[in-house]
Amino acid sequence: MGESRTALVTGSAGFIGYYTSRRLLADGFRVVGVDSLSDYYDPNLKRRRQAELLKNAGFSATNEPIETPGLLADLFAEHRPDVVVHLAAQAGVRYSIDNPRSYLESNLVGTFELLEAARAHPPQHMLLASTSSAYGANTEMPYRETMKADHQMSFYAATKKASEAMAHSYAHLFGLPVTMFRFFTVYGPWGRPDMVPFKFVAKLVRGEPIDVYNHGEMMRDFTYVEDLVEAVRRLIDTPPVRPTAAEDIAEGDSLSPVAPWRVVNIGNSQPVQLGDMIAAIEDALGIKAKRNFMPMQPGDVPATWADAELLRSLTGYVPGTDIREGVRRFVAWYRDYYQI
Predict the structure, then answer these.
(1) Burial category of 30 from C-beta neighbours within 10 Å (exposed 0-12, middle 13-18, buried 19 and up)
(2) Considering the chain, what is the average pLDDT of its residues?
(3) Which residues contact 212 (CB under 8 A, 6 or more apart)?
(4) Start-end of H helices in the chain
(5) Strands 272-273 and 59-62
(6) Which amino acids are annotated catalytic?
(7) What sign does the dihedral 150-153-159-160 (CA atoms) show?
(8) Looking at residue 216, what is its pLDDT?
(9) The whole model's pTM is what?
C-alpha cells in the first residue's frame, strides 16, 4: 500500500519533479525532495513549485546539488526510500554546448552519488529519467527501446545515455531494480521557460517574433506533463526482474538479459509539426505569431516519435492528451501565473 511508502524525488522543484511529487503525495507516499534550485532558469518558478509542495506535511525538501559528496548517502540512510524517482539533471540540448561541465557534474557525478547511495540502502525500485535525445542520429521512426542508440548528437544526450549504462552496471552488480525512462518533449502548466511552448507564449504576449528553427520542418512528440506522471506512477509498481534466461524476455521488451534493468519510452506516440503547435498557441492566445525562420541548431534533431507499446504492455497506459487541449491548459496557467 502507498500509505507507508517513502519516495525520494530528485529535482523535486523542477517541472516534472513537482508534478511527480504532487502525485505521489496524493497517493499517500511520504516524499523526500532534493533540488539545488539552480539558476539555469528562473529560480522563483522553482521556489513557487516547492512552496506548493511544502503545503503537504508529507513533503520535505533539501536544497542542495545532488552531486554534493555524501548528501544522497545521508538522505538514503535517514529515510530508507522504498522508491526513487531521479529527475534532477542539467537539462537542455543547446546549453550543453556552452556549459558542458554543468552536465558532467549534475548528470554523471550526481547519478553516481545516487547509485552509490542506493547500493548501501537498496530501494524496491529506482526510476531514472533519460531522454528521447538518447536516440541521437537514428532516423527510423517511431523510436523503439530495443533500437541501438550509439550516436548521440549533443553532450546532454551523451550524459543521459551514459547514465543509462552506469545504472545498468549497478543493476547487474548489486541487483538494484532500475527503470530508465526516455521522455519526449514534455510541456504543460508550471513548465520550463527554456522549452518551446513557454518561449513562444512569452514572445507572443510581448508582441515579439518567434524563432522557428529548421524553417519549421520540425516534428516533436509533445507529451502533456500529467500524462507523463501517470505513466511514471504506473511504472513504479512494475519493477523489472532479472530474467533467468534470454527466452524469458518478451519480444519488444528492453529488459536486460543480465540485470533487473529496462528502458521505457514515455511519449504521446503522435508527433506534431512545429507549425501545428504554433497554431494551437495562436488559437489559445488569440494572437498571430510573427515568425523568424532559422536554420537547424547544432545538436538538435529534426523529429522525435515514440513507440509506446512497451509502456502499454507494462502498464496498460499510453499518454493521449491532444496538443490543442494541452496548450490551452498551459496558456490558462501562464495568464494566471503572470497576471496577464
Answers:
(1) buried
(2) 94
(3) 274, 278, 291, 292, 293, 294
(4) 15-26, 43-54, 71-79, 95-98, 100-103, 110-120, 155-174, 196-205, 225-236, 274-285, 309-315, 323-337
(5) unpaired
(6) 156
(7) negative
(8) 87
(9) 0.95
